[in-house]
Amino acid sequence: MDAISIRGNRPLYGRIRVSGAKNAALPILCATLLSDGESVLGNVPNLRDIETTAALLRFLGREVTLSYPEVRVHAPTGQVRPEAPYDLVRQMRASVLVLGPLVARYGRARVSLPGGCAIGARPVDQHLMGLEALGARIQVEHGYIVAEAPRLRGAEVVFDVQTVTGTENLMMAAALAKGRTTLVNCACEPEVEELGRVLNKMGARVDGAGTTVIHIEGRDELAPFEHSVIADRIEAGTFMAAVGAAGGDVLLEHAPLEDLEPVVVKMRKAHVDVEREGAHVRVRRGEVLAAVDVTTAPHPGFPTDMQAQFMAMMATARGRSVLTETVFENRFMHVPELLRMGARIETHGNTAIVEGIPKLSGANVMATDLRASASLVIAGLVAEGETVVHRVYHLDRGYEAIEKKLAGVGADIKRIRVEAP
Ligand code: EPZ
Fold first, then answer.
1. pLDDT by residue (tens digit) across 197-206?
2. Distance, CA 128 to ligand 1 centroid (Å)?
């Protein structure tokens, strides 16, 4: 079992290359199910979630070649097996993103219900409501979603909540539906906009991706594509929080500044300087870190995927900060672990009150979910003594070689082998 050992109190200096966006690559890889031929995706990060998606596409009948940062997906002629089994879907909830493409392209899909995860119940009712509106017959039996439709038809769909993968599933399904689809109350995340670009490259007509209303003219068939994935704004934001906590001056290569507005505004309020330098972004923390309040919200609000990392930074800021999590019902799993490192945090429902203290103290801590594990790494950078973060497989799902990237800017951090607890 791998763990990550960190010795804190070292400011960070140097350059870090930001990898391609996991949450853009995942839906785009699923979009390859919409066409035959060979699609090529560049700037794909080497992550466990990408491996899982490749395994799922291979199970469905696609040939997938992983030569990071390039991924090739080839559709041999003939049918696919339109099934996403439980043992793959339970590893990664985003597997539900094959549902829309499969039922649109092959008229049938049997996909395991994703189930919940550490951060919440994670229902998919909006995905199913939208597919039914497009004419799919949906049954849920024995833990599986069974969707059937000879041919989806364009429709008007209003989401009850802004759901990122729900929007993406419906965009992909509508791209092969007959006629025009209008999706209202869509998620506006940059990764949704990126999927719209790829669907247009495939021959679909998608207008408004990245806004709350998306119009899609369905096509009878779509073509394979070549595309290079946008940079990962959450990985870039995570490194901003690392510099904010540890101090220093780091150039984030290819960081997507325009997609990080809400995070950058809060960073600057905390006295973390963030400035564009050509295609890169320089992050510098000079004076003492200031406490700042944050409430998460769908894009362009402050991203829920940055809440845990920002909290770790606030743990050693001067003053009291209040963090409110409005997107998921259980996204404070990092708090008990931060408390073990001496942080002063009180939670009341979906609100956490952080009293900043000068230093944390190194400890053995347990990662519980992807962003919580990043939060513990950041805390380790400002703790006295050694911090060992266990169960780093959570981290490996969404961060490409994070310990190497942080060591490259001077952090005392390394991956170690530990006996399974
Ligand atoms: C995406 O998850 C991301 N994953 C998550 O990133 C991210 O935290 C989340 O969006 C919010 O930004 C990928 O893109 C692969 P949602 P998703 O559907 O689509 C409720 C990470 O760290 N909801 O936007 O599953 C839901 O319960 C991961 O990289 C319904 O009620 O999230 C939640 O409260 C973690 N019914 C809210 O909507 C539905 O049918 C937003 O969830 C769907 C969602």
1. 999 999 999 9
2. 15
Q: The sheet that has 344-348: what strands, in order across it?
A: 294-295, 320-324, 351-355, 344-348
| 2-19+231-417 and 22-228 have identical folds | yes
pLDDT band at 80 (very low <50, low <70, confident <90, very high): confident
Which one of 7-11, 86-90, 240-244 scores highest in mean pLDDT?
A: 240-244
CATH number of 2-19+231-417: 3.65.10.10
Residue 110's SS3 state is strand
Domain boundaries, the chain: 2-19+231-417, 22-228
Is the Cβ–Cβ distance between 16 and 253 less than 8 Å?
yes
Reported as type and span, the H/E element at residue 14 is: strand 12-17
Q: What CA–CA distance (Å, rounded) separates 197 from 184?
A: 18
Q: Are 285 and 243 in contact (CB under 8 A)?
A: yes
CA distance 264 to 259: 10
For the domain 22-228, what is the CATH code? Answer: 3.65.10.10
Nearest-angstrom CA–CA distance, 339 and 332: 12
CA separation for the pair 380, 384 (Å, rounded): 8
Q: Which of 313, 323, 321 is nearest to 285 (CA)?
A: 313
Confidence of residue 9 (pLDDT cuts 50, 70, 90): confident
d(CA 53, CA 96): 11
- Cβ atoms of 181 and 156 closer than 8 Å: yes
**To test the ligand 1 pocket, which listed residue (161, 329, 373) has its Cβ within 8 A of the most ligand atoms?**
161
DSSP letters for 130-168: HHHHTT-EEEEETTEEEEE-SS-B--EEE-SS--HHHHH
Query: What residues does ligand 1 touch, defined as CB less than 6 Å away?
Result: 23, 26, 94, 120, 122-127, 161, 163-166, 187, 304-305, 327-328, 370-371, 398
What pLDDT is stored for residue 71 in this prediction? 98
The answer to whether the CB of 32 falls within 8 A of the CB of 75 is yes
- Asked if the model's pLDDT at residue 421 lies above 70, the reply is no
